[in-house]
Here is the input.
Amino acid sequence: MTPGGTALSLLPSALVLSLCLPTVVGSQEDSVSTRLDPVIVTVTRGTGRSVLSSPFALTITRPDSTRPGQRHAAIDESLALVPGLSATNRNNPSQDPRLSIRGFGARSAFGVRGVRVLRDGMPLTLPDGQTPLDYLSLESVGHIEVMRGSASALYGNASGGVVDIRTATPSTASISAEGRQWLGSDDYTRSVLAMSGRSGGLSYIGDLSHSSSDGTRVHSRQRSTSGFGRAALTTATGNYALTLLALRNPLSQNPGALTLAEMRDDPRAADPLSLRRRASKAVNQIQIGASAEQRLGRGDLTAYGFGGSRSLDNPLTFAVVEIGRHSYGAGASLRHPAVLAGMRHRFAAGADVQAQNDLRRNYAQCADTVTPSTPTSTCPDISSARGIVTLDQRELVSSVGIYMTDEIELTRQLSLTAGVRADRVRFEVEDRLVSEANPDDSGNRTLASVSPIAGMVMRLTRISSVYGNISSAFETPTATELGNQPDGSAGINPDLNAQKSLTLEIGWKGFSGDFLSYDLALFSTRVRDELVPFEIPGSNGRRYFRNAGRTVRRGAEAGLSAEYGSMSMIVAYNYSRFRFREFVVGTADYSGNLIPGLPTHRAQGALTISGVNGFAGIETELAGSGFVDDANNLRAPGYSVFHLRAGLNPMRSNPRLTVTVGAQNILNRRYASSIAVNAARERFFEPASVRSFFVGLAFGVQARSRSGNAPGG
Here is the structure.
């Protein structure tokens, strides 16, 4: 049986198992407990409400508590098992994991598109909609809030959703420190030092990590050092914090994508052109932010501001790209409850401003390690990989957004949420390479939209609810997508438009006593001018973008988690039926075809047994086949893959010691974890890691109180 056949044959079993779980759990004594009801989410941009009181598809995941033993190396590990969300590792250190929600984001060649990413409520997403994830440290994460669907428009310039990564609560001790060391296949090493503590109203948490690996594929070596720090002050009337994120990444090689035959023959191989052109990247980045939350009577005022810089040296197969970036932004919101017309209201209003200033230079790509080059007009110095400057421009992007929402309690069981956001995003290019032979390509474009949302939720019981919403969103092309023009000209593409979407959604979510939680959502999203990537033969991997006329996305998402004694289980399933309704390219009519990049069926599951002395767990992902191109000429095979982790706690108090071992892809499947949609030369496939192993050691200690006992211990 093929991997795809295996995946599809096991999907019904996974669904049957998830449907049987309520029966198993229900055999225990029922407890009408609101244990999970107080879980509050702020990603809704309202006043902060229970998951059950919000008319949107929301998930809160605590990566280390539900699935212990994680290495915190990439966000795909932290965001596994979230319904509707796909986080895939490309095994390409020069490109971030691909993050998509309901298919939005699957077009990304690097970074994240279509999904807003935040850290403690502060945006990591740039004003043009792109989010680099390489500088995001995951060591000090406590939980992650995920909003799925177009209601993410309340944060601006996104169609798929919002991911808000929340920092863990610092230790109650004055000093708590932990060192972690990971070793694994392919000379993988990761060394971490993490610290946290508090004294009175002051608290701090931070980490510093260094990673190196030769990579699971040829030409995929990486060296990287990252850090995160957060200091906070809590008073009787407010909370104030300073945050730092930093990255030094001197080497991340780019092995490129493979053809299907190459992947099946050797998933460790690299694209020969990427090898010849020495494709890679080097990055340095720092970002500093400040935030404040001040209580004002019955309401509160929150504000944030941040600034940062990023330098990128990026040899690609078609050019050598250098970018120097400065970015900054600020935002504020006011939230206040009131009683009007005999009904309780929770008002919220706010504004966000952001800007990025990129100095971009492209050089002719002159590296060729197979055929020695001879001097040419574009490569006059054969000893250098950089030829003449082909593009030199300053790219300025600014965004302004204002929003307001109102949550109305119609009855004790029924509430209504309504909101609207107005956005204006301006792109400007200042051409610095102007001559008689090269005309001035300076220019600007402004894209704007108003995005309303409305939703209703009914509490069926204290621990279950049903909801429905209608929401709209708009998403601009990024500065890179607007700048890559198929005719080769510089400046801004005047024909590439922002995509706009409208979503209808219904859902059911709740808990069953202390043992079971469930989440079911059905949605239909219609998109106009969807942004679609493509490549041109002979472009050496450069990606361009165009608008599809109309698309429709219909799908279902189901999530289930259960606890029974020392055993916990999580199951997530996605059904994605995404089609082009109207899409004509030249003489080719793709109307009716499936949108490529994602399988129609995908399921994930995790089973963990935990105790005071350690844990053991198994995780699985099952996926059907999916198309890789707009023409639907070729499918990526489906797959089934399994991972194992186990840990021991020989020292549990102070000091504490944990040993973790794990194996990835234990059946050694050969499959593509990520798809390069519409790639030229049939290089669609980014192979997943072959079977690999790792071991980790963590040693922690806390300062002792005067009585000689470790706080909390």
